[in-house]
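Protocol step 4 of 6: record predicted structures for both targets in the notebook before any analysis. Target 1:
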Amino acid sequence: MSKNKLYSIAGIAAVVLVVILVSGLFLKRKNGSDTDKPVYKVKRGDLTISYTESGTIKAKDQTIIRNEVEGRSSIVSVIAEGTRVKQGDLLVELNANTLNDQKIDQEIRVQNTEATFISAKENLAVVENQAKSDIDLAKLTLEFAKQDLEKYISGDYLYSLDEADAKIALAQEELSRAEQTLKDSTQLAAEKYISGVELQTDTIARKKCAIDANLALKSKELLEKYTYKREVAKLKSDVSQAEMAMERTERKSNASVIQAQAELKAKESEYNRQQDKLKKMNDQLGKTKIYAPTDGLVIYATSAKSNRWGNTQPLDVGSEVGEKEELIYLPAGDASKAEVAIHEAYLKKTEKGMPAIIIVDTMPGKTYFGNITTIAPLPDGQRMWLNPDLKVYNAEISIDDNDPMLRTGMSCQAEIVIEQMKNVIFIPLQAVVRVGSEPTVYVKKRNDFEARKVKTGLDNNKMIHIVSGLNDGDVVLLSPPLKSAAVETENRKLLEQRTQNSAGAAAAKPVEQTEKTITPPPAATEANQSANTETSNAEDMKKKFENMSDEEKEKMKKQFENMTPEQKEQLRKQFGREKPKE
């Protein structure tokens, strides 16, 4: 058995013993008769199931005035609370000295960025113009290169070719004439008509004409095989170089234009950003003076919130307020609502549309009626931060009556009606105990009381609805014997069932394993000793109560009867949940 389980058993035994002694032993009369115990006669009647929560009165339709100035600002002037204002009246004026200084600095920044923006715009125009000029020049160079190539192929080369052919034809003609002359001279020299010198001269002339004719042929061959190909390749290269130069020029020009455009865009964005900041500062300066958007009655937000939290600084001249902080409420009309915080214990029972009865603390005797309109889906974070164990859900109750005397910030008590039952059987909540897992009451039968199981419904912390099990006229015991009440919950039953299943599984193991002696750990031994000590102390307490005088028992009885159900529950928690100190 674990240490925590032993502590739990010891604590439950203690609370059972204390409750038995207080509710059973001390409630006995001197003669010890059960008929003298407090009883309740069952009768039919109307039962209202409800609970009460504290809240605050708020205007149903109201304009909330907030501080729209960034950061924290101090109040220079504020209209008096309770003043009725018209639309456009000045409500609050905040300190604007810092914003004015920031505005002057911002105006200088705007002027500087504007000058930079204009310079970037002019630079873009220059870059675009230069880019157009460079591209046009590159295109012209390419066009000239193409024309030179075409001119050589279709013009210069053909001209050179014709000129070479002409030179060949002329040289061949001169060679033919020289050969004829040499032939004539040779015949004449043989007949001794000319001298040998003249023959030699004609021979040389013929050789010269033959050489010229050969040179003319070689020149044409060089033109066709080498000069033409070289010139065409050179001119084509010039065209290709011009094309690549034009592409480089276009890319470089486009890059220069894009860079200039990006710089202009950046300068323009910076200029616009600084202008927006200046516009925002002017807007912030305008918000330092807060005017009434509608007619209404001035109610400070701090006055309305102080009833709930009690730690809000009053709204006054010199007070610092933060951005989006609520400053003033301007209720519109006389319609009101109640804001309440519903404890999580009642959340399951509460729904929208349920009726509520509202009592305002400052108006005793006056009662208002309404219905729940909204319930928050999540618990109030601020209250949960202040007390992590407290979880409440904010709800709004619409008040039917439009009473001008209801003012924002008034404290109220809202009784939320869960159900109104007609002609039902109900008994005090203290008369019902659980025996096992079923609600049980003790009904008077002759001179004794017998246990009877009943089926219960809703309760209002005082009375509980009995669905079945009791009849009109039955007499029930208001202080049932707690020794018969169950101390075992469903979870404990499940735990016992699990333990039994584990024991059955252990029995199915081999004999040599189950027959081994199991030595409890030291922690379990100490827990058993603590449980035994707790039981011994409880027995001593019982003996002490039995030795009390009748006057002391009567006094204890009255004290127990005057306890509220909450106090009794607290007593059970105190004796049943606290672990013994080690």
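Target 2:
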Amino acid sequence: MDERPKNILQVLVVEASVGDAKIIREMFARTRMENKLLPLIEVECQASLGAGMTILERKEFNAVLLNLTQPDSTGLDTFRKLHTQYPNLPLIILTSLDGESTALEAVREGAQDYFVKGRAEANELTMAIRNAVERKRLEEENRLIHARLVQAQKMEAVGILAGGVAHDFNNLITAIRGSVDMALFKCEASHPMVKDLRNIQTAADRASQLTRQIILLSQKHHKEFVLFNLNEAVESIFKMLHRILGEDIAVQTDLRGDIWQVRADRGSLEQVLLNLAVRAREAMQEKGGSLVIRTENVQVDDAACQKMKDARVGRYVRMTATDTGRGLTPDAVEHLFEAFTTGKGGTLQGTGLGLSVVQGIIKEHEGWISVRSSERSGSAFEIYLPAVTEKSPTPTSKKIPFEWLKGRGEKILVVEDEEGIREFVRRSLNEMGYAVSVAASACEALSIFRAENKAFELSLIDVVLPDKSGIELAGDLRQHNPRIKILLNSGYMDHKSQWPLIEERGYPFMQKPYSLAELLKKLREVLG
């Protein structure tokens, strides 16, 4: 970042005539004395194009005042050589070459302005330099904003692609897991194939976890606020952080065992951790370093509220992500959570959305985020989430009797366009005592429904079907048979899962991938 005062502009004058260079210097000095509102122009003169380009390699200037006639170059070639080497540096031509065609061509090729010696007033030159600098600044900001908008659009496209990939993977994993569950169900515990089947089962579970993490990276998932331990989110995402940060950045955790519970969407908090990890990687990309994630209980009082923006008195769980990166300037911290931060002043580049997303998520959880940082000393991002005093239900380890999971001849209509899942559900439910009919589309389902005189106790429906929404199909079935139970399921985890509408209609739902046991339990719950 340029630390010079904004009312002082450093200008390089490339002028072969010593006399003209002296006149230019005196013009700017006199102009400033006459009008204090104009910027102060500090001039450095060089007597040739080569000398001017040499000094530009080691010193920063706000603009260049260029004579087209030099000892080592002449005409528009003088401008072109300099402009090609420094395309973002404002160039203003002050020359004895008088010609409208030359002026037009120079401006067309990128010169900010064109003046003829002997005709340019000092005020005009000063204003031209100031305007050129401001114009270039705005052009650069627009370019950066455009680049980040393009990047954001790319990320949106990646998110849509990730949702589709996750859907396909969830369908495949459901079919694999279901088939393995059926095979294990039929095998004695001592069978030599049991170990291999268990390995397949474990691999399917790991693939399911990876799919969920892909959705987190795409920033698209259904939000469900529940009571849980924040340490669980850190531990869940810990391995993924290693892959994001790379080998030259160490990741450590310091998690308090007696941590209070929070009411939060676990996926959103894992997304916060991912965004903070990406920010830390950018801050440490030159030399590597370490990232430490710490959780602890804190009591925020009035004194603490005076020091932190948005803070409130109460009990909170604090999660801190501390890196050893290059740190941030006070100005950078002030604008850190704005979308499309340019990267100047110690802020970081990237899509420009990561930290604004983090702040949005934390505010959604009725918390706040505080930043401690200084240049070359790393940064600490402190996230405060309201602690919840009520206890979450203790999960029961009581086993459900196997006989309770079996069907009693209930007729079930399964509507699923993925053949592998359709076949797994049909075979398994038939063997478990249900009478199952299957359809690959809404149209086929309605045809079967009418052929069976609408006599189904339950319909298991995929939310996204090739010809109609599963929610629409559920409404059609209910219209003809109000007593039929509906159980929706989907491999999508983003907007295509249609969560808001499902919740509005009150339909039970299962997220793919699911196991055979989960399917059987859910069926008994819905059937009552």
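Step 5 preliminary note on target 2. The domain at 402-527 is CATH 3.40.50.2300 (Rossmann fold). The radius of gyration is 33 Å.
Proceed to step 6 after PI sign-off.
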